[in-house]
Design the sequence.
């Protein structure tokens, strides 16, 4: 009897776990047959391949089709390869694809309240509240703060540059300091102090998404969100939340009591909270076309005619969640950009020399004064170099959307595809950036793809390091500014070289991120 019951249970479980297996077959969309539980991600779960490599293999096989299917664990999701379709989902038909995957909203109580996870009207309201953080006026204030910080950084760096430098560690610390100083208004001291407690916490924030155990949490959530909820597991650990409460809620209270005002996020959150959300205009100038930023995202107006707020402004966690997001969204991404970019500059000495010459020209123009916001943003070759860095090593492997209103997408040649509410759809950013149809000889690091002569031939939708459309990265201009500034100062003072241990090629960790597997040590040789 027990035997028959066991067989019946296994059978029911198998049927349930494979319930979506014919999803793409029924819709005539190419896909790879999934395995139970792991879907198409077996190599990733076995730690044999990175997410980048898994997607790349499936993309190359299916890219002739404008859309293909991917089983991320048990979830069947569409992957779009065609720039026109990408524009349609991310911009033209945005009202049907406002949100990220549902799981971000429910997998962690605190993260679920962050801008990244908020949905529909709540997302629109929060985006309008937060986007002025990166208005042109605020960016200039942040630039001044960062310029002062750069002086201290260079003094500290002199000490570190004596030996070979682990550039991941260096730029993680730089990014943590810059976010603390310019965005949140406190000193991180992560570069200065090798044992900085703040650095330990910020690093553990990164681990929230980029470890094997976080992947298992997503897997459990994918199998059953109810089981996940019942297990009591959360993504963000208690130490991180305690730290964020201090830098957000305690800081807000302190400023209110002591009448302190600083031009940063905490101040903005304080004002929004006091005004119960009524300070949510997007009238501050955010898009500045004069700045040379090929990859920067243009902010869209996402307002609606609803007048009452759907957010609970008195909820502390709502604000803690935004601080968390600002840390985490800029941390891995900017560190990854700077790590991989300095690696490519060391490898491609001709590119480094051309960039150094542009820096020298600016220094001459500045007549000994520090580089200004405008001068930094007018540097054309600098912009090409950064844009190419983000093409070859986009920090986000993919960007995703979740259908909130059914729609029929036109696939061309008389074909169409009906997308139902609740259906995930993603854009494989890394694979599109490495597609020779969009970027010939894609593995070559060639900044001139983005020069004035060539950049007009880049098809909209084929270059999306910051995503695209109203839900694209909110911090793109800040990320570009802090990256350009540090590259400027480092190259003005040092020549970057490979060491005997520097890897010949970079590969990626077997997790859901695009983090580099190898330790990257580089030599920084003082120029004078
Ligand atoms: C090189 C650095 C960075 C890269 C490549 C990057 C990339 C991205 C991408 C791909 C997205 C998703 C976009 C989409 O779904 O279309 C995103 C979202 C976001 N990023 Fe960034 N990011 C970077 C730095 C930053 C920084 C420094 C901040 C702020 C301090 C930031 C804040 C955000 C926020 C708040 C979102 C969520 C936007 C929303 O859901 O409305 N990012 N980023």
Sequence:
């Amino acid at each position: 009897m027990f035997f028959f019951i066991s067989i019946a249970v296994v059978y029911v479980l198998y049927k349930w776990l494979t319930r979506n297996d014919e999803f793409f077959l029924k819709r005539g969309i190419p896909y790879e047959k999934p395995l139970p539980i792991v879907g198409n991600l077996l190599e990733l779960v076995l730690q044999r391949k990175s997410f980048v490599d898994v997607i790349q293999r499936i993309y190359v096989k299916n890219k002739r089709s404008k859309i293909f299917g991917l089983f991320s664990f048990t979830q069947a999701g569409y992957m779009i390869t065609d720039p026109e379709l990408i524009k349609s989902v991310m911009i033209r038909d945005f009202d049907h694809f406002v949100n990220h995957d549902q799981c971000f909203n429910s997998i962690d109580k605190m993260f679920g309240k962050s801008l990244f996870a908020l949905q529909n009207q709540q997302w629109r309201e929060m985006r309008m509240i937060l986007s002025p953080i990166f208005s042109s006026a605020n960016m200039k204030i942040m630039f001044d703060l960062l310029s002062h910080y750069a002086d201290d950084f260079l003094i500290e760096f002199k000490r570190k540059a004596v030996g070979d430098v682990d550039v991941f560690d260096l730029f993680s610390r730089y990014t943590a300091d810059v976010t603390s100083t310019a965005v949140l208004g406190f000193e991180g001291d992560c570069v200065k102090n090798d044992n900085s407690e703040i650095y330990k916490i910020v690093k553990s924030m990164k681990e929230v998404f980029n470890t094997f155990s976080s992947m298992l949490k997503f897997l459990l959530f994918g199998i059953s969100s109810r089981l996940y909820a019942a297990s009591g597991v959360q993504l963000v650990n208690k130490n991180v939340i305690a730290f964020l409460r201090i830098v957000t809620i305690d800081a807000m209270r302190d400023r209110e009591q002591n009448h302190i005002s600083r031009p940063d996020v905490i101040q903005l959150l304080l004002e929004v909270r006091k005004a119960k959300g009524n300070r949510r205009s997007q009238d501050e100038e955010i898009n500045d076309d004069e700045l040379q930023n090929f990859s920067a995202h243009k902010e869209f107006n996402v307002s609606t005619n609803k007048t009452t707020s759907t957010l609970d402004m008195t909820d502390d966690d709502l604000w803690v969640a935004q601080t968390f997001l600002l840390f985490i969204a800029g941390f891995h991404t900017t560190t990854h950009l700077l790590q991989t970019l300095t690696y490519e500059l060391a490898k491609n000495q001709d590119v480094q020399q051309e960039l150094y010459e542009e820096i020298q020209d600016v220094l001459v123009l500045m007549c000994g004064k520090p580089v200004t916001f405008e001068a930094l943003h007018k540097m054309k070759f600098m912009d090409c170099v950064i844009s190419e860095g983000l093409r070859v090593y986009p920090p986000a492997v993919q960007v995703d959307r979740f259908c909130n209103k059914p729609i029929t997408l036109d696939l061309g040649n008389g074909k169409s595809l009906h997308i139902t509410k609740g259906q995930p759809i993603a854009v494989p950013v890394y694979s599109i950036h490495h597609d020779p149809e969009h970027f010939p000889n894609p593995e070559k690091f060639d900044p001139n793809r983005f020069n004035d002569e060539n950049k007009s031939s880049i098809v909209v939708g084929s270059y999306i390091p910051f995503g695209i459309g109203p839900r694209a990265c909110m911090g793109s201009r800040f990320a570009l500014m802090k990256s350009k500034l540090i590259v400027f100062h480092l190259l003005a003072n040092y020549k970057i070289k490979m060491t005997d241990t520097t890897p010949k090629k970079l590969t990626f960790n077997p997790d859901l991120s695009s983090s580099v597997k190898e330790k990257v040590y580089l030599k920084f040789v003082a120029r004078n």
Remarks:
- The pocket of protoporphyrin IX containing FE is lined by residues 115-116, 127, 183, 325-326, 329-330, 333-334, 337, 395-396, 399, 465-467, 471-475, 478-479 (CB under 6 Å).
- The first strand starts at residue 67 and ends at 72.
